[in-house]
């Protein structure tokens, strides 16, 4: 790799891969990303380490398994890739507006500049109250900083850096719900207001069984509109980087923290489940000019991104579970042999359960384990060529997934007893529950 390249990590909240044109979607939601897929390395089976932000983004920023953060009340429980790059001489910055990965939870670690849109300080409760004020009063229904704003803030920061490599993390909240694309981007026949988008989103969260087919289609129309808007903003961001002559010496990664559900398996939004539409995410990597990368069809994990970034800066990733995507020799000789894992801790009545999934090229196996006893409560398998219907769960041995199932049993057992999960689970969960209750009371959830 080029010595000390700039690194731009662009992550998108709640973007499922199969709603992009280059993944076969019928709508023209992503013309820029489609064009980028033609010239960047495309990883067509990228699997997120988890299905919701509180576990998925920490895995993206640290390269650690998501249960580490679940057991610590979803705080940043280990050093970030920004910590590592900062020590190596990088100037680092992060821009986003998601309170779950804000200063309130320690995710500013390693960032010289960290703009999380929480202007009232690091106290979690005060910060979350400020988000509610922004949402309901100051921004008149806007739930997050739009991609245009994130671009402006991050580009202004780039222009202040005098010398040396930079690491920039932008996390875009479009197309996270409520789905309220700017005027002119929705696929719906009629534009909906922010308040209408909010009410509809609350319906899918609180009463998913009551969602009509007409409402579901409206959700999809608005979600796709959010993607279309975001795609345009990503194009503009790339244009600005090109104008500053930064792209040629930079590693650029575009991915999502997780996907989104629209009634598949009976779920909406992104519950703590591990179905394909929740964990299959886009992943495009554009290396510096002169460096070659190839497309890959076999499964890769979001846990591979931190080792890849460290590799680009000639830093070791010893002790991390992922492998660099920049070096084919670090991966199995045949990508078809790869198996990657995902997991998520249940919530509410399922808080004592942790779900695990193993994704191979042709099959997927899912298990649920009791966190206390480690007992397997449920196990099922899917053939990926029939998965889209969501109606074909089978016994692993019946579809030739016995080896994948065995690897998943071993993996899930090892994670439940892993020492790096910490020893403050009960306290952390209680503290997390208090924050969750306040978030819900404020209308965020």
Give a short synopsis of this structure.
The chain is of the alpha/beta class.
How would you describe what is shown here?
The chain has 445 residues and is an alpha/beta fold. The protein folds into 2 domains: 333 residues, Alkaline Phosphatase, subunit A (3-Layer(aba) Sandwich), CATH 3.40.720; 81 residues. A 7-stranded mixed sheet has the order 2-11-7-1-6-4-5, with helices on both faces. Helix 5 runs parallel beside helix 12 and helix 6 packs parallel to helix 8. The N and C termini lie far apart (43 Å). The C terminus is likely disordered.
CATH architecture label name of the largest domain:
3-Layer(aba) Sandwich
* Multimeric organization: single chain
Structural class: alpha/beta
Beta-strand percentage range: 15-25%
Tell me the CATH superfamily of the largest domain. Answer: Alkaline Phosphatase, subunit A
CATH class of the largest domain: Alpha Beta
**Series of H and E elements:** EHEEHHHEEHHEHHEEEHEEEHEEEEHH
Mean pLDDT: 87
- Biggest sheet descriptor: 7 strands, mixed
The coarse silhouette is globular
Please count the helical segments.
12
Radius of gyration, Cα only, in angstroms?
A: 21 Å
CATH topology of the largest domain: Alkaline Phosphatase, subunit A
What's the number of extended β-strand segments? 16
Tell me roughly what share of residues is in helical segments.
25-40%
């Amino acid at each position: 790799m080029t010595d000390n390249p700039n690194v731009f990590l662009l992550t998108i909240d709640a973007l499922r891969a199969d709603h992009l044109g280059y993944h076969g979607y019928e709508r023209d939601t992503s013309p820029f990303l489609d064009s980028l897929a033609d010239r960047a390395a495309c990883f067509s089976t990228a699997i997120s380490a988890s299905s919701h932000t509180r576990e998925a983004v920490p895995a993206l920023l640290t390269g650690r398994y998501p249960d580490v953060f679940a057991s610590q009340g979803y705080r940043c429980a280990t050093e970030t890739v920004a910590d590592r790059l900062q020590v190596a001489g990088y100037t680092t910055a992060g821009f986003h507006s998601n309170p779950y990965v804000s200063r309130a939870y320690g995710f500013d670690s390693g960032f010289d500049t960290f703009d999380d849109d929480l202007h009232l300080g690091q106290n979690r409760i005060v910060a979350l109250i400020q988000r509610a004020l922004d949402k309901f009063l100051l921004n008149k229904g806007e739930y997050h900083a739009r991609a245009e704003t994130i671009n402006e803030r991050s580009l202004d920061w780039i222009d202040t850096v005098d010398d040396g490599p930079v690491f920039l993390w932008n996390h875009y909240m479009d197309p996270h719900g409520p789905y309220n694309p700017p005027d002119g981007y929705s696929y719906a026949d009629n534009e909906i207001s922010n308040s209408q988008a909010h009410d509809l989103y609350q319906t899918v969260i609180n009463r998913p069984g009551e969602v009509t087919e007409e409402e579901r289609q409206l959700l999809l129309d608005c979600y796709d509109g959010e993607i279309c808007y975001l795609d345009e903003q990503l194009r503009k961001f790339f244009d600005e980087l090109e104008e500053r002559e930064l792209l040629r010496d930079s590693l650029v990664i575009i991915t999502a923290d997780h996907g989104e559900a629209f009634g598949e398996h009976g779920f909406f939004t992104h519950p703590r489940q591990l179905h394909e539409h929740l964990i299959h995410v886009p992943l495009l990597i554009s290396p510096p000019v002169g460096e070659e990368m190839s497309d890959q069809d076999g499964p890769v994990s979001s846990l591979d991104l931190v080792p890849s970034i460290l590799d680009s800066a000639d830093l070791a990733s010893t002790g991390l579970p992922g492998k660099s995507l920049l070096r084919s020799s670090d991966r199995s000789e045949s990508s078809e042999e790869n198996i990657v894992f995902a997991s998520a801790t249940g919530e509410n009545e399922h808080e004592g359960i942790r779900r695990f999934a193993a994704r191979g090229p042709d099959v997927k196996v899912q298990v649920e384990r009791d966190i206390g006893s480690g007992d397997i409560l449920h196990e099922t398998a899917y053939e990926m060529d029939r998965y889209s219907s969501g109606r074909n769960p089978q016994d692993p041995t019946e579809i030739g997934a016995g080896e994948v199932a065995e690897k998943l049993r071993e993996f899930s057992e090892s994670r439940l007893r892993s020492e790096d999960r910490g020893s403050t689970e009960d306290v952390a969960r209680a503290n997390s529950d208090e924050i969750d209750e306040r978030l819900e009371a404020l209308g965020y959830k």
